[in-house]
Design a protein that fits this description.
By secondary structure, the chain is α+β, with helices and mostly antiparallel strands. It has two domains: 100 residues, no CATH class; 82 residues, Single Sheet (Anthopleurin-A). The chain is built from six helices and 15 strands. A three-stranded antiparallel sheet has the order 11-14-13, with no helix packed on it.
Length: 216
């Protein structure tokens, strides 16, 4: 519900919670929580608001606790694809991000020549998320010099650090070996490039990302 006097939106639930939320701190009460929600697997991943003119927007941020994103939606929303953009010398200029839901699906609900109103711009400001991210670990360029340095390394990987859904492409050759262990446990582990990995997800997980397995 939009209040022209206060120039803001107020969530109203006359059916389940039977409440009006007039304070921003109470918006998160609309999020399923508690034992009953867990047992019934209720999960708030997307909240879409529709207008009378047929437009719509993703307002999930409004209902997350303290607007912290991704909050409880982590792992449940469609992925954000990232592509490194390089210059002529091979240096990374920036990372191009494509949000499949925001930039793909929701764009269908905004007319091509639609001009934002003052209310739209006010809502844009209200829906700015608070993003809590751990500082990215800085890796040294080149081949790692310790086993620990291979973990999450952007260029090279040992088989022991492959994630559950990762596998090495058939026929891929290792670039070198890395000595590990001591004494009788000493061995040479194969080092592969990250580009030699492939993600192997279950059919259900691909469906969650809006994809369908193609049988060849």
């Amino acid at each position: 519900m939009y209040s022209t006097g206060a120039e803001t939106w107020y969530p109203v639930d006359p059916v389940v919670l039977k409440m009006n939320a007039f304070e921003a701190d109470t918006f998160c009460q609309f999020e399923p929580r508690g034992k009953a929600a867990i047992d019934s697997r209720q999960q708030m991943s997307y909240i879409v608001a529709y207008n009378a003119d047929g437009t719509a927007r993703d307002v999930t941020i409004r209902y997350l606790t303290k607007k912290v994103y991704p909050g409880k939606t982590k792992g449940f929303r469609l992925p954000v694809f990232e592509d490194d953009v390089y210059d002529n010398d091979g240096n990374v200029l920036f990372v191009d991000k494509y949000d499949l839901f925001r930039d793909g699906i929701m764009k269908c609900y905004v007319p091509k020549f639609y001009k934002k109103t003052a209310e739209d711009k006010k809502e844009d400001d209200d829906l700015i998320p608070v993003i809590l991210e751990k500082p990215a670990k800085i890796h040294k360029k080149g081949m790692p010099d310790s086993v620990a340095a291979f973990k999450n390394h952007p260029e090279y990987v040992l088989e022991r650090f492959l994630k559950r859904e990762e596998a090495i492409l058939p026929g891929e050759k290792h670039v070198q070996t890395f000595p590990t262990g001591k004494g009788e446990k000493a061995k040479d582990e194969k080092v592969y490039r990250r580009e030699s990995l492939v993600v192997c997800k279950a059919v259900e997980n691909w469906h969650k990302e809006g994809r369908v397995i193609k049988v060849c």
